[in-house]
Amino acid sequence: MADNVLILAGGQGKRMKTTKPKVLLEVLGSPMLEWVIGACENAGLSQICVVKGYEAQQIDDYLCGRYETVLQAERLGTGHAVMQATDFLNKNIDGNTLVLCGDAPFIDKDTIEGALKLHKQDNCAVTVVTSVIGNPTGYGRIIRTENGISGIVEHKDCTPEQLKINEINSGCYWFETKALLSVLSELTPNNAQGEYYLTDCIELLLKKGRKAQAYSSENPDVSLGANDRAGLLKLNDIARMKIINRHLDNGVEFTCLDGVIIGKDVTIGGGTHIKSGSQLFGKTSVGEGSVIGPNTILTDTVVGDNVILNNVQANKAVVEDKATIGPWVQLRPDSVVKKSAHIGDFVEIKNATIGERTAVAHLTYVGDSDVGANVNFGCGCVTVNYDGENKFRTVIGDNAFIGCNTNLVAPVKVGKGAYTAAGSTITGDVPDGALAIERGATVIKEGYADTKLQKRNEKFAKLALEDK
Ligand code: UD1
Ligand code: CA
Questions:
Q1: 31 CB within 6 A, ligand 1
Q2: I want to staple 48 with a disulfide (CB 3.0 to 4.6 A). Which of 5, 108, 275, 298 is the partner?
Q3: Homologous superfamily, domain 4-216
């Protein structure tokens, strides 16, 4: 008897002035829809269906088949949106269905579970998640009775007395699936907005002798959404501080929050210091005792303990314990920097493993490479991985020494403990322990500069006179 989730996501959000569906607008780098899905997943709910409408294809593209969707071709109200999902609901008719708004990102596991508990305990046909707020303008008002509720009245349909009620409908409900299906077809658009209101199901169910409850959430932000860009910025501000406060509680150090953004699914160990200008997104995780920043952007990156990342940008990379990286380093997807390795200024790593204690200290590109332990790269080295059509790998053994300004033309192997001479363009494999030199021998032309130098000296003498 699995429970269903129906996320209403058909809306446009006109005042956002975008061609995206409103639910795909982002809070801290994740679409609002993703926040809602995440809360359901946290509550152990995985039978999810999303009702799409405006720019529906974008919802499908975003979900990538992760969850079911149904199309609401015309936006005729929240009740109409649910009607489009009748087939989905019928598949699991014996359980309950959680209905949520895809544009209220702060719904949480505790609220979802608390409401379901009350819903089951009181044997309700519907349980509405409510919130008591300072300014209830625009929200549906909850009409309480002695032991439940008698309905929800939309703001535009309220009497002056009802407008004073500040317990509002968050837009999140638990329905007994069978009961919901039994009244959906009875909804009519006879109201101020000419819409099919999902909230009208409550009165219809009460008329059938069923019970309706209101679950007042402890989460003060549960009903928050945004109607315009300023509102969306406010959601970002709220989410940002919520998350930073959680990390503070876990022992993460912040000295200045300027420019610090941490996504909802990021984990950070105690004693790690996040410096200003740092943004951590996606499934990024950072261990304990590390220093991240200033100005470090990590996306889906795994960072170990006691790591230093100073002015680093990393995407889908792994950085093991005690590595020190930066300043001004880019780690592109599938880079692995092993324990205690050092990457210095102006280095780019892509799809490459950098072995333990290996140093890539300055001005170097390492792409499509497997680099062993204790390797030293001189300044200005390049793995030449691309011939314009295909990519090739470079393999460098432990303890190798890559001289300054070496080009390693892949596919190529540098053996264990082997050396490449500075300025070499290495096109063939270098055996273990050997030195490879691929550059012209030095040719000396004695006295070459004499006549040239005389002319230049005259020129500079003249310029010096003019400067006086
Ligand atoms: C609805 C509730 C109101 C509640 C408020 C909370 C109704 C009648 N009213 O208000 O009591 O306080 O939510 O935010 O349900 N949607 C569709 N298709 C539609 C209409 C809406 O998919 O035809 C989706 C929207 O994308 C949004 C959600 O449903 O995610 C809520 O729609 P919205 O118009 O914001 O809700 P209201 O009608 O203002
Ligand atoms: Ca509406």
A1: no
A2: 5
A3: Spore Coat Polysaccharide Biosynthesis Protein SpsA; Chain A (3.90.550.10)
